[in-house]
Write a structure and sequence with these properties.
By secondary structure, this protein is α+β, with helices and mostly antiparallel strands. Helix content is about 20%, strand content about 30%.
Length: about 270
């Protein structure tokens, strides 16, 4: 009886061992087939227009960086991972606290925002706020959008772009090759400022810089030609102080152009 029992145990042990071996093999296969995440912006185009109005068109440039989150309703697998644009494609950045590899994960959602910050403010997480079965970029980045503050001084292109918060939810283009595409939308508003002379006509051929026209105590917009642009947060007080020369002191706002759905309640005050 003991011999039979031992034989039975040996048989059971062998089956269990084989089962474990198969399971480990399957797990190994799952790991082996995982592929690194590949990022595309604006459905594969090399660049994405940040903003387009008359006279204003800026695009992503080399060294621009986005932050990526990979999450589902149970957990956030990757948190604020930087991807850098080289002028053509997006690549995982290198750094002390940056993972060496980011894997494409089935069953997860993908979110990205621009411009990347090591500490963007807020705490992004998967939360379907309206309970419609889909966590949108606005829902995921709710706290970042809420706490985002555009710079008051946007007189340079770098400062203007650093204020222009964009975010989007990724679409899986090719799961086998780990390709996810993002279409990033502006989350702040855009104010367009034109200066008028005493007769109501536009002041043209403005040679002075934005910093020479607007006081350092106020918002300083980005100048393109004879027009000025400022990224602004919805529902936030916005003010301008003019400096001498006298030519600009009596100038007034000609147009305030909000992005659709943004700035509908922006209070604009000119001192």
């Amino acid at each position: 009886m003991k011999k039979q029992s031992i034989a039975q145990y040996l048989c059971i042990g062998m089956v269990a061992f084989l089962f474990m071996a198969c399971s480990q093999e399957e797990e190994a296969e799952k790991v082996n087939v995982s592929v690194p995440l590949r990022v595309m912006i604006n459905n594969g185009q090399s660049s994405l227009t940040r903003a387009t109005l008359s006279g204003l068109s800026t695009e992503f440039e080399a060294d621009d960086t986005i932050g990526i989150y990979i999450a589902n309703e149970d957990r956030t697998q990757y948190d604020n991972v930087p991807y850098v644009f080289d002028g053509t494609d997006w690549y995982l950045a290198s750094g002390e606290y940056v993972p060496k590899r980011v894997s494409f994960l089935a069953g997860y959602e993908y979110y990205a925002y621009y411009p990347y910050k090591e500490s963007p403010g807020g705490w992004p997480y998967y939360y379907d706020r309206d309970d419609d079965g889909d966590c949108t970029a606005d829902e995921f980045f709710y706290s970042i959008i809420n706490y985002w503050n555009p710079l008051e001084d946007q007189s340079t292109k770098a400062k203007f772009n650093a204020s222009d918060l964009m975010a989007g939810k990724g679409t899986i283009v090719d799961a086998q090759n780990g390709i996810v595409s993002f279409n990033l939308d502006h989350k702040m508003g855009l104010i367009k400022i034109e200066l008028l002379n005493g007769n109501g006509g536009h002041i043209t051929n403005i040679s002075a810089s934005s910093a020479e026209i607007f006081s350092a105590d106020s918002h300083i917009p980005y100048k393109i030609g004879d027009e000025f642009y400022q990224i602004a947060k919805p529902n936030q007080l916005f003010s301008l102080y003019f400096k001498p020369p006298v030519d600009y002191i009596d100038a007034k706002i000609d147009t305030v152009t909000p992005r659709p759905g943004r700035l509908s309640r922006l209070e604009f005050v000119l001192y």
